[in-house]
């Protein structure tokens, strides 16, 4: 089993990724796909007059401020255009893809945060009307049933809270939770860079290997969205996943290249 996370940043080539997913699935490799959609969500939010707002937690992580209207836009883009667009590409290539959000069948469950503490203009601020959380439970039975019937699950945030509210969750960490739940052979995260860069955005500074025991030391190297990817890797490693690869989603055969060890290999 491999869990593949496809990022949502500009530059990622979904057609090349879909070609490669079809090749890997046809070889008989069990696969679950998780995807994002952040760049398109930002554009749509701007067009709808509700521009994205990003906040920085007291621990230094940036995330999307998710009020109810933002969540609705998020669902429209992630669950609609991006998810169904990718499923269409895969169906066209003969893959029995089925697109689902973490809400469907309670695939991803977690606690909605009562409040988030952020730094705003140098001061601590508490936000209480936020719809965010973290995946704590994965509906393995439902996903395994789909896999057993020959379907390829294509999953996207949001998740569902225990109380039944949709919650925005980080896709990289959701993918890590999914990989951990299945004790996957590998977690592969494709983005618009070749891997973790020692001096972002200089792609010649690609870090090719990180020993599992030293992953914590590389959090300070990660920039912006890559911090969440490193955090997801930390969580997956803690749950027993032996191999994680940060790889390039802009090239031909990105999945097969990552499986072969191209990118940043952790483990």
Which CATH class applies here?
Alpha Beta
Q: Which term fits the overall shape? A: globular
Strand composition percent: 15-25%
CATH-defined topology: Carbamate kinase
**Please, how many helices?**
7
Instruction: Give the biggest sheet.
Output: 8 strands, mixed
List the keywords:
267 residues; alpha/beta; 4-stranded antiparallel sheet; 24% strand
Q: What do these coordinates show?
A:
By secondary structure, the chain is an alpha/beta fold. It has one domain (2-266): Carbamate kinase, CATH 3.40.1160.10. 33% of the residues lie in helices and 24% in strands. The chain contains 7 helices and 16 strands. An 8-stranded mixed β-sheet has the order 5-10-2-1-13-15-16-14, sandwiched between helices. A 4-stranded antiparallel β-sheet has the order 4-3-7-8, with no helix packed on it. Helix 2 crosses helix 3 (68-92) and helix 5 (171-182) packs parallel to helix 6 (226-238). The longest helix is centred in the first third of the chain and has 25 residues, at 68-92. The chain is globular. The model has no long low-confidence stretch (mean pLDDT 94).
What's the SSE blueprint?
Elements lengths: L1 E5 L7 H13 L4 E5 L2 H10 L6 E4 L4 E3 L3 H25 L4 E5 L6 E3 L5 E5 L2 E5 L9 E2 L1 H9 L3 E5 L2 E3 L4 E2 L3 H12 L3 E6 L17 E2 L15 H13 L5 E5 L5 H6 L4 E3 L1
Parallel strand pairs: 1-2, 1-13, 2-10, 5-10, 6-11, 13-15, 14-16
Antiparallel strand pairs: 3-4, 3-7, 6-9, 7-8, 11-12, 15-16
Helix pairs in contact: 2-3, 5-6
């Amino acid at each position: 089993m491999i869990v593949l996370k496809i990022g949502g940043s500009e530059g990622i080539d979904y057609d090349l990724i879909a070609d490669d997913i079809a090749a890997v699935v046809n070889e008989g490799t069990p696969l679950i796909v998780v995807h994002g959609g952040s760049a398109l969500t930002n554009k749509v939010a701007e067009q709808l007059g509700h521009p994205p707002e990003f906040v920085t937690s007291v621990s230094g992580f940036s995330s999307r401020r998710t009020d109810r209207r933002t969540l609705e836009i998020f669902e429209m883009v992630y669950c609609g255009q991006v998810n169904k667009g990718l499923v269409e590409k895969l169906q066209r290539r003969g893959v029995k893809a089925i697109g689902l959000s973490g809400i469907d069948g309670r695939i991803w469950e977690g606690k909605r945060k009562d409040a988030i503490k952020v730094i705003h203009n140098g001061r601590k601020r508490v936000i209480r009307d936020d719809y965010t959380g973290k995946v704590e439970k994965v509906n393995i039975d439902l996903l395994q049933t789909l896999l057993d019937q020959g379907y390829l699950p294509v999953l996207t945030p949001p998740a569902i809270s225990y109380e039944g509210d949709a919650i925005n969750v980080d896709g990289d960490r959701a993918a890590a939770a999914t990989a951990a739940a299945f004790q996957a052979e590998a977690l592969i995260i494709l983005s618009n860079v070749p891997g973790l860069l020692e001096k972002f955005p200089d792609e010649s500074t690609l870090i090719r290997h990180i020993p599992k025991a030293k992953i914590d030391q590389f959090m300070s190297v990660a920039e912006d969205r890559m911090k969440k990817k490193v955090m997801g890797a930390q969580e997956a490693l803690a749950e027993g996943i032996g191999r994680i690869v940060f790889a390039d989603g802009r090239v031909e055969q990105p999945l097969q290249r990552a499986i072969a060890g191209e990118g940043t290999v952790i483990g």
